Amino acid sequence: MSKHGKVLVAMSGGIDSTVTAMMMHEEGYEVVGITMKTWDYANSGGSRKETGCCSLDSINDARQVAVTMGFHHFIVDIREEFGDYVIDNFVDEYLAGRTPNPCVLCNTHIKWSALLKRADALDCQFIATGHYAIIKEHEGRKFISKAVDDNKDQSYVLWGLSQECLQRSQFPLGGFTKPQVRQMAADMGFLELSKKAESYEICFVPDNDYRSFLKRKVEGLEERVAGGHFVNTEGKILGVHEGYPFYTIGQRKGLGMAFGEPMFVTEIRPETNTVVLGRLEELIRNGMTVGQVNPMKYAQIPEGIEAVTRIRYKDRGTLSRLSNIGDDKVFVDFFANVSGVAPGQSAVFYEGDDVIGGGVIYGNGK
To answer: What are residue 107's phi and psi, to 5 degrees?
Structure first.
């Protein structure tokens, strides 16, 4: 009989999930490992060797770790539900002129759903993952807070987790730095694993070339969108581009043309296949609307609260004021100018280290 009950550990085959499983075991939990197959790499069409948390090599690594540690391990095939939701959304967002965040969608709508379903089937009371974040509690609500290691903190990608998910989740690595985790892996006898490199690519785009992925997924896309115009903010035609889905807000390199000065993508207009270019100062915004908001620390976003808002994973954040403008919409007034607000990306609101909530960037106006 385990000391603390059963825990289902999401195992990617990497160092973080392996150390997570070991920590839970040492704390007295009965560990059950699970690895989710999300993508068929044989059909990915990438030019490089598959990498990432969901690759076939990583799945085999996870199974070997479970065998070595002596606990049960299951592989769950969720390719159909992953593809229907995450990949279809990824394609649809680019075709709508937005910049998607597939890892957030996968975490909040696919992986945790699959984990909860399998945890119930296996009588596991808890779920544990190798994310670098801390779970805290405020007035009966669970919420995410930043990890100790600021370089590895993953609170930004977890803003969409529901209370049901948070009540049963554990993140043992949140209080440790990455070097400490590597040392723990080595101390546990996983010396080679402790040296394993990390991948930051999207799992279903193993060559990190989203343009080629879109071309493979959408038949005839190149022909449909070729020949659109680059224009400046006054509407003057500057040249011809390859197609609006192949550009993102803030992009400077890879435009295929020289303009005599640095030019950035400031707007994408899919209805006319137009990409607007401007100088760096024309990327500046002082407000934005965020939808699909998931309140976390509080039952709802407190009206007028001041928070640090991050608009990208590595963004340091900008002090802002949040105003509710609908059931799940918030307007963000930045206290300083912000560059590169990209519709489709996630916005996450922080009170100190605590995540108040987050949502999807809709646009620059109310």
So the answer is: -60, -50
